[in-house]
Amino acid sequence: xxxxxxxxxxxxxxxxxxxxxxxxxxxxxxxxxxxxxxxxxxxxxxxxxxxxxxxxxxxxxxxxxxxxxxxxxxxxxxxxxxxxxxxxxxxxxxxxxxxxxxxxxxxxxxxxxxxxxxxxxxxxxxxxxxxxxxxxxxxxxxxxxxxxxxxxxxxxxxxxxxxxxxxxxxxxxxxxxxxxxxxxxxxxxxxxxxxxxxxxxxxxxxxxxxxxxxxxxxxxxxxxxxxxxxxxxxxxxxxxxxxxxxxxxxxxxxxxxxxxxxxxxxxxxxxxxxxxxxxxxxxxxxxxxxxxxxxxxxxxxxxxxxxxxxxxxxxxxxxxxxxxxxxxxxxxxxxxxxxxxxxxxxxxxxxxxxxxxxxxxxxxxxxxxxxxxxxxxxxxxxxxxxxxxxxxxxxxxxxxxxxxxxxxxxxxxxxxxxxxxxxxxxxxxxxxxxxxxxxxxxxxxxxxxxxxxx
Length: 454
Known about the structure:
The protein is an alpha/beta fold. 43% of the residues lie in helices and 13% in strands. The protein has helices at 20-34, 42-50, 57-72, 74-82, 94-109, 114-126, 135-147, 149-154, 159-162, 166-176, 178-190, 202-209, 248-253, 270-277, 289-302, 343-346, 349-368, 389-398; strands spanning 194-198, 212-213, 219-221, 239-241, 260-264, 281-286, 307-310, 322-328, 370-380, 402-404, 425-427, 445-452.
């Protein structure tokens, strides 16, 4: 006689259901970052969640879009959920919280069918032994989000208050003022376009790709509907992906053919490619072999060469100084929230203070690697003053043999707003004509151009 099914056993997770695998991976990645592993990057969390199962490219893109949308408006989404949960947010249950957050993010921010967002979230709850009994709650809350969507969206009026952690909002107000802090937070909600750096013929490629040739030198793809690897020019190595702000430090360094240039902390390699494309003999140094392997593949595709050294930059020999040194120092990455909104929620002020010491040691090392008369560019993709202007002020006090070369507007296509009062580069997410949507904005970058006196 056939046995009676055990009704307490949850139905198996069925990855063949369209969209379910993507939502499972997104939920797992968000749960990881909302739990103890807050220091992990979202891309790593997504890869970890997908391990053991292969996602088709479309499913992988959907998982990334859901997870990114969840963090882009995490503060506001959590507030909306808390108002509709009798006992408040289940902060001590990251998998339940992540399931509600990713479901609400789909409803409020993504062009997916409401029934798919709700039904597949409920399926995930039923497939989780720890959450099966809460499937009715997930269903009720998400259906209420659907019904009240317009009213919820109307409440999102202050990105700085709603979607920026308090520690960052406080810092940006102090560093840039109230108006600029609000503009930065608003720019984060717009996301970021795909920017390309080209070794030659940017106007021609802008036309071929349907992009815009920015006066800063990059080509911006306003609507990139295809995967990057499928776009014209990728296979033949005509360009590489690099935010327009991230391309500026090398343009300030201005490497010349025949010069010996060190690129410290070089991976993933966009700046190395710029230096090599200028004809300089570049040595790319990074401690991560895996990241340097990716750098090597990119250089091969681009038809460029570099000496690649896997080591800690602090351990480099100093017997043969370089004509120019670029230090893109490890940092809190708070300038990249348009692309990586998870950073705001997975980093803390403690991370900023911890990284400042490492940056100081690397900057002193970069100074010793720069020959007399040589140039040094220090840069970070951080909005935090301690990781930018504060580092340079301290450095110049420690190193009287170095001087700052003040950046003039002609070095940045006339954009005087990109230069701080000391003469260093300071880009903000709210900078660049257009300012809103995918046609404007820059990553937040700091760069200082220094010269070692003869």
